[in-house]
Design brief:
7 strands; Arc Repressor Mutant, subunit A; Rossmann fold; alpha/beta; two-stranded antiparallel ribbon; 7 helices; three-stranded parallel beta sheet
Length: about 160
Amino acid sequence: NRLIAALCPATIIVEAAWRSGARNTVSWASACGRIVLAVPGPVHSATSVTPHRLIRDAEAVLCTGVADVLELVGPLGRQPPLRPDQHRRLDDLSADELAVYEAVPARGEIGTGELSLRAGVALGGCLAILDRLSDQGLIGHGTDGWRLTGQPVTRAGD
């Protein structure tokens, strides 16, 4: 879900129950600064709950057809990497900081030594980077190691 959301200029949710993998994809798309659109179905359908709630909570734009997608995304090959009103906090990270952040698994926790190896950053440098990423709210430390915090990596208006 993280890769799909990051590689696409927009994510379109069509018919998804509330407890659905689509919510995870929407979270990653939003975190990556991507556009989220929703195609709602009938209001009484269990498979329409997610699109309706996303639109209601302003997490997605109503999509009524291809014209809506083209208006927001533009012709193929001309998509901006981010919505113009958002700045990714990850854009401000150095190459080593980004390597460490990206080595933190999407689920679960990872020890400092393993994280240092995966990121290709020396242990001392990795420790300093982990402190900075933690101070920025991007990662946290649990009982078994480092984890993503789930905090948005975008800031509106920057």
